[in-house]
């Protein structure tokens, strides 16, 4: 009984719109003809850099792989397909789980053969080594910067709580205060809410705990804010 004809998807990419993918496609079509494969789709990204995370034709190819529309993915060179070794390994792992073979003509990678699977294993080990090396260099760089006293992360901004309280007493809304102080609305709201609760608790303690909580809570907002304004000056760092 003759074996079923295998279906192949051809992928090609050129970095600029004035380049053509014809050479890549010609070589890939000839390969498919030599192997007796049926070309079921040609996925071509024109004018897209290999560093792009999202490419229309590549995204469509990966979606069709999930739908089981082909058995093989063939490209002219693996840097036409993947943006990095890590990206290649992740894509090939996905193909392997779906029973799809990957072929890169120039590098001689063919995961349908034992030799090709061995090459893929070596590539995977290299990708893991590369990721570990990057992490180690990053950690070493951060540690060295901290030893020099350099701040790591987002620049710190100072939030003046007294100013926020005064602006609130002047009748400004949370949005207006945030815009005036150039901070997020959530920062203003959180800071005023925390101090409002604190001032209410202090007022309740001053007047006695029994039966006074409701009257304190019902005080007008402006009076509560005046209590807040009487607290000592505090600053809160915002991210």
Gross geometry = elongated
CATH homologous superfamily descriptor of the largest domain: Resolvase, N-terminal catalytic domain
Level of helix content? Answer: 40-55%
- Tally of strands: 7
Indicate the CATH architecture of the largest domain.
Answer: 3-Layer(aba) Sandwich
CATH secondary-structure class of the largest domain: Alpha Beta
Main sheet attributes: strand count, strand direction, barrel closure: 5 strands, mixed
Mean pLDDT: 77
The structural class is: alpha/beta
Strand order of the largest sheet: 2-1-3-4-5
Q: What is the H-and-E element order?
A: EHEHEHHEEHEHHHHHE
What would the CATH topology of the largest domain be?
A: Rossmann fold
Summarize the structure in words:
With 239 residues, this protein is α/β, with parallel strands linked by helices. It folds into two domains: 7-132, Rossmann fold (3-Layer(aba) Sandwich); 157-238, Orthogonal Bundle (Arc Repressor Mutant, subunit A). The chain is built from ten helices and seven strands. It has helices spanning 22-35, 56-66, 78-81, 85-97, 114-147, 161-169, 174-181, 185-207, 213-217, 221-229, and strands spanning 7-14, 38-46, 72-75, 101-104, 109-110, 157-160, 235-238. A five-stranded mixed beta sheet has the order 2-1-3-4-5, sandwiched between helices. The chain has a two-stranded antiparallel ribbon with strand order 6-7. Strand 4 and strand 5 form a beta hairpin. The longest helix has 34 residues, at 114-147. The radius of gyration is 32 Å and the shape is elongated. Mean pLDDT is 77; it is low at 209-221 and 231-239.
